[in-house]
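SAMPLE LOG
Freezer: B-3
Tube label: C17
Construct: single chain, 158 aa
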Amino acid sequence: MYKTLTAAIALIVIAMLALRFGAHAGTTKIVPVGQAVRQDDFLYTVTHVVAKRTPSSTVYAVTIRVDNQALRVDYHWSDEIAFVEDAAGRKFQARADSADEVSADPIVPPGGSADFTLDFELPKDARAPMLRYWNGILMGDIFDGAAYAHAAIPLDSR
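STRUCTURE (predicted):
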């Protein structure tokens, strides 16, 4: 019993260390609009991007489809999961007044899908904006080192 418990604890510690270093190390993987990014049993897909330029900023309306491939677990979407990072490393959260016209319910049932539209306002000097995700570490992320956190979806071609 003691050996089994010790082995289990050692495996957990090794997995936690691997996640700690794997989740923050590694290269960014560029993912095109329309390609899904997997986090555990959940897929995030940027399906549509519209950029509206103003004299002082650019507002990106980004539609993200969430597919819940879990068999029993609801998925709880939060607008803070998606953020935009520019070439200078600045991070931008969705505007609080984002009009989520497609689906206001943040719960996606097992086997279900939902679309969420978020508005990101970036200053005029922001270059190479990339949409990224961070939703913590779920059980399935242990096996791929939280690869979803390394995905970056370009929002602009300028």
